[in-house]
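--- STAGE predict ---
source: upstream dedup step, 1 unique chain passed
mode: sequence only
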Amino acid sequence: CELWSEYDNAAEVRQEISGELPPGEIIFIQGPLSGGWIQDLAQGGRLHLLTDAELFGWSRPRPRRRSLARPSAPEESFADLQHGNYVVHIDYGIGRFIGLVERRLDEIQREFLLIEYADGDQLYIPVHQADRISRYVGADSSSPSLSRLGSSEWARSKGKAREAVEHIARDLLELYAERQTVLGTAFPPDTAWQKELEASFAHQETEDQIQALEAIKSDMERPKPMDRLICGDVGYGKTEVALRAAFKAVMHGKQTAMLVPTTVLAQQHFNTFRRRLAAFPIKVEMLSRFRSRSETAEIITSLVSGEIDMVIGTHRLLQPDVQFKDLGLLIIDEEQRFGVTHKEFLKRMRTEVDVLTLTATPIPRTLYMALTGVRDISTISTPPEDRLPVRTHVGLYDPQLVRSAILRELDRGGQVFFVHNRVQTIATMQHRLERLVPEARFTMAHGQMLEKRLSQTMEQFSRGEIDVLVSTSIIESGLDIPNANTLIVDRADRFGLAQLYQLRGRVGRAAIQGFSYFFRSAGQRATEEALQRLEIIAEHSQLGAGYAIAMRDLEMRGAGDILGTRQHGYIASVGFHLYTRLLSSAVRRMRLEMGHELVLPEEVRKTTELPPAAIDIPLPAVIPDDYIADRALRLQLYRRLAELRSLDELETIDAELHDRFGPTPNEVLNLLYQLKVKIIATNAGIDRIMTESGQILIDLPEKRIVPDIHAFGEGIRRSKRGLWLSMDIEGGWEKKLLQLLNHILENA
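--- STAGE serialize ---
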């Protein structure tokens, strides 16, 4: 209607049509319709109804309810700790977790985490100090040596790791500082066409997608080169985010290049971009081995002349003969899949143009927090609306189950991926399947096929002309065929955990139930590690399981790959989580030294600031079995409670406990009181509060002046060691202790 009015035509939007329409009249009506129609009229002529789909080639989506963001995943599988798991205590080192145990001390029942160290020594950690412990993740899958209590060995290991992270922090900050001094392109605010493109998206954006887009646009509108990482689970909408960023760059007259790891993925992104941008005068091209030599030469010439606005390609884009007239944005999909030489080239690009990196490999939260302030990261962890978890089966290869799985998918009009990862025998497997399910149409795809043949095969499958695609793992990354919702993997025990998860992400990408079958050979024995991988993939089938799987993969393979082999020994000596915690502190300290005050999110601050006060006061502070019977849940809650750093957080979790488990028993109230003391003491700069000879000692240096102590009456005295509070004080020592701590905090 607005476009019609721009050409001086009279136009108004009506709510309904009443009576007959005279021939040639055009009327605008607003309402939800998926498509138009033509109706023959009794008096002759036809009535045409045209929607957005017929006029512009796309349909405006109907408003739908917005998905709520999912709660963030815990930092590691702390609640899953089992007897014998390796853990790291920040002060005492690497030990073996024995379990949750109760002990009676000074006539008070208390609960502890019991950890075993070298020579059979044992350490009882109060539950309110559970934040001092993390699950051990090494640099590889080998078992660590247990630390020796009372020796300086752990302090030395921690010191060496601290020195190592100083170098990493300095490198990160130097690259960050270099980017801050270079002037890039400051893109203008969104155009009307940008808004039209975004309105044409056929789905409702998730909250995470919206936040990621806002961050990207804010980066692009600044004069400094953007370097943002978008980290999102498989099928959670990273491509749409990238497409909108690319469109914004083109609207300002700049070119966009998108670098992807495989030719199959390049073809898919090319098709997606062309389809989404069909209504706009934007030229999109693809550069990969699917292109002939003459086509490649023509594309390269057009990039130099500026005729091509967007190009999507494999590492062919990084060759010296590929030049651009005015490149403004580089999008990199799964950077970790490229080689060292390519990564060096991309590192140089980061100081020249805006760079947006996409990854479906979730990074551990500790590393995410360590990089806060030196690398811009957005996470997309909310599943699209109507997404269903993929049902997962793991077991021995069963031909009859394969047949029934394929036929069930075909009966509902869908398609099937069958993954057989050996090129030498893939044709034999296809013939075997054709005999097993003669009702289905089969074809195969693998990386050694001729480019034209592979391209045609993938096009046929995406158009629905093929029922079952028998392929190698080339379908692993990013392939999106909404009609294919059953995945069958042969010899799944030969795949890595991350590969299995990526493969499963190929199905269940629409509001249709997806099915995945991971088979191992009945005639060959699988290794213990392979069986463990299959068990994990079956166990983690819920939406957003990528984070949990990434952490289990870290535990199985080690963390050496994430931060490079040079850090291998340091990660092994202190564990991945403590290592990244030290990195957080180093980054923050160096930013302060460089004069860049870093305002950190509360979650990051927890891992980088001074350790909280140690509290030992005589109260039965536990979560009783009859309140929460599940041991793993109690362990998780102890960890959450120990990580609290503000009274607001404490109030929130207090209300949550009451809501989930009912009225709070006295033992839990005591635990919450103890945590309140800990939070106030930490904020007041107090290192320790302990019980000694029937009195409570607040550990304060003699030089720390606390005025007006006499105002608190008898029962409080000062010594060189700190403030002493009598436990026989009138009105109860608990209330008096809080008053005293608040007084110290106010005068800090």
